[in-house]
Specification:
- Belongs to the protein-tyrosine phosphatase family. Receptor class 2B subfamily.
- The chain has 1222 residues and is of the alpha+beta class.
- Helices cover 16% and strands 33% of the residues.
- The protein has 15 helices and 71 strands.
- The termini are far apart.
């Protein structure tokens, strides 16, 4: 009870608890503790307070605490401070506790530093009805969650509530704030709390207002630890493709109960894991690889989200080896020929380990030729594991073979796949070593000797004697050359046209010709319905003997000229007398089922009287097949790198001596000074002048690329056509024997002569350096078939085609009527050289040249090289081939004298000064770079040697190779980036330091208002496809529309993003919708799905051009790689990067790469690794240098750093190790 004097500074009158701040030090506290209370609901405690100071100073603070069950007082549930006026204020406390908990209210006054005024309490009352001024909380329940998950506490209040007053969730000294939301006359707030492992704490809800406070009971947060087994699973049994295990889950670390069991397994050397649910304590893991080590762990799950624990300790076990499964019979495909079969198959569906070899067995079991003994001996051949094809040769025509194929692993052979293949029948063969002279001759008859033919695959069904009238018309003979059959069989005996140039005069049964028998042509008898009419003495005749075989609908005919009968008048006219001549070999004409006929050649030295003189080339008996006299070659360097060169076939002048390889760079730089005056001067000296030559088959005779007759290829003449020895082709004797042959691209009428030349010269390799059509003009006729085709008496069959980015390799089987042997011919078609000008870089051409040399057998005939004209590009290729061999064998190059000699063999072989300069640059690049391809079986050892640091130079071969790459990388001039530097395009470039060259730009097709068709993006080749990559920096806010236009225009089904959003100094913004659909200019982009793991986020988009809806939609897969840290040159994990490459490879059709602002280092590394894996899969070699050089030709900043260059080697080694394990 206080009754102080009344005044403006006096405390209020009456009885109350008071603290006079002026009588205490600042910070001193006074507490009033109520007795502990308990209630199974909510108590409302009402009290009044007085805080006043005369001058407005703060007397101190007043706090209220609620202590539960004698624990710590916690944080204040209500507080007030500062002077509140000279009056009493009433406050309510709604305390919600539930039995058996008890609580205690603590009032605490704290003196301020100002130490003036009063803090007082009065009228503390426990009401027996709910609070009116403040709400009260419903009971707060306990929450149980798994570690790492979010716990939800829901605070629900009723009564006097306001949405503007926040709810608090209190734990120890922390408070979480949230504005409540109304819900059926109640306010509710839900708090999310992250539960950490081992955390156990108490939470309560509090709401504060000037009118008072509401306090809930404590709810407990219970954090459970997901279970993990202590012991690894136990192996019960192992097989080649399975492992049976026992889980061992009785002892665990963490909390139960266990509601689900799973096993997780992976191959030890693989990054891929699989998870299977398990319903019992034993489990059989199926579909495993044989002889492979696996890691198997157990996963346990308890109730609730995030209840799956970490994998337990792994069981490490290996499956057993097993024999492979059988090769699927439906995978056996074959192409039968006369005496050859081309067979292909596929690897077994279940290889059960590493296939080490394939065994192919074959045996003749049936034949239509009675001369073949069946069944024949069984023969077996073995093939390497990567060879899934075989060419059987030396077979019998018309014979059925039982062929078996089986695969082998280290454990033995698998099941055998069987198939029956029947070879085609072949035309009969005549046994004529020499064509004999007629036995006798009269004015109307001629007697010849008929010899039986040897059947090949089917018995001879009939013989025919055919008479051909020579009427002096060149047109008749030309028609025979291009006819379909030797001589068509008439449908009836009376259907032979008397105006036809030939007629059947007799048909003989095989039984009537058991041995050589005389036959008189013109004896006026009938043979099997054909009248052997007398011959007209005033006409010239050619007599042919023909044999036919028929079997199962197939017909094969072979015919041979056995005699010629002249007119009686001509024999008495000495001016046109035909001299006697006995050929040295039979002149044979054969045909297949659809074959063409070829007349036999005339004798040397004979000029047919009926031929126009201006169409003939005179030949003399003493001429040889070729007029090439020089036997020496410029240098060694055969396809197998044997240096056999003794001396150059041309004179190396003192004014132009050979240049040492070591001095080549200095020599070229000197020649390029004064705007290339040195090259200009040399080229003017060697520019050729065209000599006279035959023009009938010259494709570009008006351009001065005629064949020099002294060195031309001379074909064996066809019978009755002395002009048929000409083909526009030259021997180029500046190469080691066998010489090269240069030729223009064949015209339609040249195709047969071209293949005759290939057959005659035993050529294995044809080098083609032109496209069929260039700039809308036909440059070369398609002289090869897509399957099988006959050109005269030569049949060409396409066996396989291999297409790479810059060239294509086609393999043909070549056979000719009358010849039992068959040839294999490879065409190497380089597709990256334009009609005029030269390639921008020589990288692809040098790789192409090496491929030709490595593939050509050492015993093959000349390499045929042709472009469209047979000059220019052809000459460049030959000079490169010769000079690279010379550089390797002698350490010098002699380009000037080689080109000069080459132009003397064939005119215009080097057409322009630009080509002459290109030859120098290409040879320099080859000498600087060397051979960088490494076979996969030597890669590990080679890479280890490359990493060794030389103690004297303090560098390694790998670093020197990277420095060489930098030295041969093209440096861009401003003119080469003119489009990027245009004022309207500058704002579309993130950085002006690295711009794409004009030659590599990817121009936009889709229009977007006034926007230009420029985007900072470059096209780059892969190993297998041209323009396989589109490389671009991360889009800017103003180029996002252009980015999606680029994706749509180039059909990019894969987008690889190698950086994270906003990870670099230059902002990298999100350019895709997530979720939903978004429009970017004319493009709409819709997110279809999203999956993620630790390494990559994969999004699937649907892209459509709303201005071209008829073109349909494009489905794009977006790969965002997460394992490439900022400011690191290489990815964090090789395995993760390999996984990314595999996923992109399985999906990719056209690839777009989104990189950091410079758009080259990371993208270049990705592209280079993709190319290296393509090389390994298709050619079993790895060439990191070639991959990086090819990419830098398109964009010089690709594979920027030494670390990225080495990473390409590391990744190749990792990939090869994975292959060995598999």
């Amino acid at each position: 009870q206080l009754d102080p004097p009344r005044g403006p500074c006096s405390p209020p009158a009456g009885s109350f608890m008071m603290v006079n701040s002026s009588q205490h030090f600042g910070g001193q506290r006074a507490q009033l503790l109520l007795l502990p209370l308990s209630e199974n609901d909510t108590h409302c405690i009402q009290f009044s307070y007085f805080l006043y100071s005369r001058d407005g100073h703060s007397p101190g603070d007043l706090q209220v605490y609620i202590r539960v069950n004698g624990g710590p007082k916690g944080s204040a549930v209500w507080n007030i401070s500062g002077s509140q006026g000279r009056q009493w204020h009433q406050v309510e406390l709604a305390v919600s506790t539930f039995w058996p908990s008890e609580y205690q209210v603590i009032f605490e006054a704290t003196v301020s530093e100002e130490r003036q005024g009063y803090v007082a309490l009065d009228d503390i009352v426990l009401l027996n009805y709910p609070c009116y001024k403040v709400p009260h909380f419903s009971r707060l329940g306990d929450v149980e969650v798994n570690a790492g998950q979010n716990a939800s506490f829901q605070c629900v209040a009723t009564g006097k509530v306001s949405e503007s007053e926040p709810f608090l969730l209190e734990v120890r000294t922390r408070r979480l704030f949230m504005s409540p939301s109304p819900n059926h006359k109640r306010l509710m707030a839900t708090f999310q709390v992250e539960a950490q492992r081992g955390e156990q704490d108490l939470y309560r809800c509090v709401t504060l207002s000037p009118r008072g406070a509401a306090i809930s009971n404590f709810g407990e947060l219970i954090v459970r630890v997901p279970p993990t087994p202590i012991a690894p699973p136990q192996l019960l049994r192992a097989g080649p493709t399975y492992l049976i295990i026992q889980l061992n889950t009785n002892s665990i670390v963490g909390d139960g109960p266990v509601i689900r069991r799973e096993i997780q397994y992976r191959a030890s050397q693989s990054m891929w894991t699989e998870t299977h649910g398990v319903g019992s304590l034993t489990y059989k893991v199926w579909h495993l690889e044989p002889d492979t080590e696996y890691h198997i762990s157990v996963l346990l799950t308890r109730p609730g989200d995030g209840g799956t624990g970490a994998p337990g300790p792994p069981l490490i076990s290996r499956t057993k080896c097993a024999v492979p499964g059988g090769i699927a019979p439906e995978s056996l495909t074959f192409t039968p020929l006369d005496d050859m079969i081309f067979l292909k198959w596929e690897e077994p569906v279940e290889p059960n380990g590493l296939i080490t070899q394939y065994e192919i067995s074959y045996q003749s079991i049936e034949s239509s030729d009675p001369g073949i003994n069946v069944p024949g001996p069984r023969r077996t051949v073995s093939k390497l594991r990567n060879e899934t094809y075989h060419m059987f040769s030396g077979l019998h025509p018309g014979t059925t073979y039982l062929v078996s194929v089986r695969a082998r692993t280290a454990k033995g052979f698998g099941q055998t796949a069987l198939t029956e293949i029947t070879t085609n029948i072949s035309a009969p063969v005549f046994d004529y070593e020499d064509v004999p002279s007629p036995l006798s001759e009269s004015e109307s008859t001629i007697t010849v000797l008929l010899r039986p033919a040897l059947a090949r695959g089917a018995p001879v069904s009939a013989y025919q004697v055919v008479v051909v009238e020579e009427d002096g018309s060149r047109q008749v003979r030309r028609r025979e050359v291009g006819s379909v059959d030797c001589f068509p069989t008439p449908s009836s005996h009376s259907s032979q046209s008397r105006g036809a140039p030939h007629y059947y005069t007799a048909e003989l049964a095989p039984s009537s010709l058991p041995e050589a028998t005389p036959f008189t042509v013109g004896d006026n008898h009938t043979y099997n319905g054909y009248w052997n009419s007398p011959l007209d003495p005033t006409k010239n005749y050619l007599i042919y003997f023909q044999a036919t075989s028929n079997f199962r609908g197939e017909t094969r005919i072979n015919c041979i000229r056995i005699a010629r009968k002249g007119t009686a008048r001509c024999s008495r006219t000495s001016a046109w007398r035909t001299p006697s001549w006995t050929p040295t070999a039979p002149e044979v004409r054969r045909r297949g089922a659809g074959g063409g006929a070829v007349p036999p050649p005339p004798p040397p030295g004979v000029l047919l009287a009926a031929a126009p003189l201006h169409r003939c080339v005179f030949m003399f008996p003493d001429e040889q097949r070729s007029s090439v006299n020089e036997s020496s070659s410029l240098l060694g360097g055969s396809p197998h790198r044997h240096c056999r060169r003794k001396s150059s076939p041309y004179h190396t002048g003192q004014l132009h001596p050979a240049v040492r390889v070591a001095d080549l760079l200095q020599h070229i730089n000197q020649m390029k000074t004064a705007e290339g005056y040195g090259f200009k001067q040399e080229y003017e000296v060697i520019a050729p002048v065209a000599p006279p030559a035959a023009a009938g088959e010259n494709k570009y005779s008006s351009f001065g690329c005629l064949s020099d007759d002294r060195h031309r290829v001379k074909l064996h003449s066809l019978l009755a056509d002395p002009c048929s020895d000409y083909v526009n082709a030259n021997y180029i004797d500046v190469t080691p024997p066998p010489f090269c042959i240069s030729s223009p691209g064949p015209k339609q009428e040249m195709i047969y002569d071209f293949w005759r030349m290939v057959w005659q010269e035993n050529c294995f390799s044809i080098v083609m350096i032109t496209k069929l059509v260039e700039v809308g003009r036909m440059k070369c006729c398609k002289y090869w078939p897509d399957d099988t085709e006959l050109y005269g008496d030569i049949k060409i069959t396409l066996l396989k085609t291999e297409t790479l980015a810059e060239y294509t390799v086609r393999t043909f089987a070549m056979e000719r009527r009358g010849y039992p042997a068959k040839h294999e011919v490879c065409q190497f078609h380089f597709t990256s050289w334009p009609e005029h000008g030269v390639p921008y870089h020589a990288t692809g051409l040098l790789a192409f040249l090496r491929r030709v040399k490595a593939s050509t057998p050492p015993d093959a005939g000349p390499v045929v090289v042709h472009c469209s004209m047979g000059a220019g590009r052809t000459g460049c290729y030959i000079v490169l081939d010769v000079m690279l061999d010379m550089a390797e064998c002698e350490g010098v190059v002699d380009i000037y004298n080689c080109v000069k000699t080459l132009c003397s063999r064939r005119i215009n072989m080097i057409q322009t000064e630009e080509q002459y300069v290109f030859i120098h640059d290409a040879i320099l690049e080859a000498c600087l770079c060397g051979e960088t391809a490494v076979p996969v079986n030597e890669f590990a050892l080679t890479f280890k040697e490359m990493l060794k640091v030389d103690t004297q130079s303090n560098t390694s071969q790998l670093r020197e190779e990277f420095q060489t790459l930098n030295s041969v990388t093209p440096h861009l001039d401003v003119e080469e980036c003119s489009i990027s530097l245009m004022p309207r395009n500058r704002e579309k470039n993130r950085s002006m330091d690295v711009l794409p060259p004009d030659r590599s730009l990817a121009f936009l097709v889709t229009t977007d208002g006034e926007s230009s068709n420029y985007i900072n993006a470059a096209l780059a080749d892969s190993f297998l496809r041209p323009a396989a990559f589109v490389v671009t920096p991360h889009p800017l806010p103003g180029t996002t529309t252009d980015f999606w236009r680029l994706v749509y225009d180039y059909g990019c089904t894969s987008v690889v993003m190698l950086n994270q959003l906003n990870q670099s100094n230059s902002p990298c913004l999100q350019y895709w919708p997530e979720p939903g659909l978004q429009q970017f200019g004319p493009m709409t982009v819709e997110l279809l799905s999203r999956t993620a793991d630790d390494d990559v986020i994969i999004r699937l988009f649907r892209v459509q051009n709303i201005t071209r809806l008829q073109e349909g939609q494009l489905v794009v897969r977006h790969f965002q790689f997460l394992r490439w840290s900022p400011y690191r040159d290489v990815p964090d994990s090789k395995k993760a990067f390999l996984s990314l490459l595999a996923q992109v490879h399985n999906w990719q059709r056209e690839l777009l790469l989104d990189d950091l602002p410079r758009g080259g280092g990371r993208s270049g590394t990705f592209c280079a690794c993709t190319m290296i894996l393509e090389m390994i899969r298709h050619h079993s070699v790895a060439d990191v240098f070639f991959a990086a050089k090819t990419l830098r030709n398109a964009k010089p900043n690709m594979v920027e750093t030494m670390e990225q260059y080495r990473f390409c080697y590391d990744l190749a080694q990792e990939y090869l190790e994975c292959l060995e394990v598999r």
